[in-house]
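From: lab user (bench 3)
To: helpdesk
Subject: output format question, protein + pyridoxal-5'-phosphate

Hello, I'm new to running complex predictions and I'm not sure whether the block I got back is the full result or only part of it. Here's what I submitted:
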Amino acid sequence: MTNDLIDRRQAVLGPNVPTFYDNPVHLVKGEGVWVWDSSGHKYLDCYNNVPHVGHCHPHVVSAISAQAATLNTHTRYLHDGIINYAERLIAKFHKGLDQIIMVCSGSEANDIALRMAQAVTGKTGIISTDNTYHGNTMAVSQLSSRKPPIGGYAANIRHVPAPTPFVQLAVVLRLKRRPSLKKSKRQSMILKSQDMVFQVFCFVQPLQMKVSQTYQKTL
Ligand SMILES: Cc1ncc(COP(=O)(O)O)c(C=O)c1O
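Helpdesk reply: Thanks, we reran it on our side. This is the complete output you should expect:
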C-alpha cells in the first residue's frame, strides 16, 4: 500500500519532492499535538510547522469552512474580513508594527522579506546559514546550501555555517581530544548527542503547544 503510494507519488509529483525517513510515514489524520498513520499508530508531532495552534483546531476548521462556503476571492475587492483580521492581529503587535502584508506561503513570506530588507537598506547582499530551507521561489532557493540552484549561486549570496547546538558541540570537542576512538564509536556518540537534542525538543514542544493553546483561548 505504502510502496504503491510512493510509486504513484513519484509518477505525478516527480522524483525531486522528498519525503522524510527511509520508510516514509503515511499520515491520515491529526488532532492537537497528535498525528496518526494509516495503520493506526499515534505520533507526537514535534516537527510540523504548519498548524501553529495544533492539528485540526475546531475554531480554525470552522472559520475556514464558513469562508470557503461563502466567498473565495483575491484582495483587490473590498472585504471586511481581511480588515477585521488585520486590525485584530496588529492590536497584538509591538507598537510601531502597524501594517501587515498577507501572503499564501512561507516561500512568499521569505521572498517579500528579502525585498523589504533590500528596499530599506538599499543593499542587495544576503548572508544565509547552511542546513536551512526557505522555500521554492527563485529568490529563496539561492539561500539554501543543501541544493545549489541551477546555474549556481548569485554573486550577492554568502553562506555561513549554522551555530552548532551546545550538546553536539561538546560531544564533537570531546571526540577531537580522543582520536584513538573507532569511527563507528564516534558516529554513535554523535548520534546519541543528536538524540539528546531531540529529546529536549520533545520536552519543549508540548510546552509550546500549551502556551499557544492558552494564547488562542484569548483570541
Ligand atoms: C522554515 C521554512 N521556511 C519556508 C518554508 C516554505 O514554506 P511554503 O512551503 O509554505 O512555501 C518551509 C516549509 O516547510 C519551512 O519549513
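A quick orientation on your result: Residues 49, 105-107, 110, 133-135 surround pyridoxal-5'-phosphate (CB under 6 Å). Let us know if anything else is unclear.
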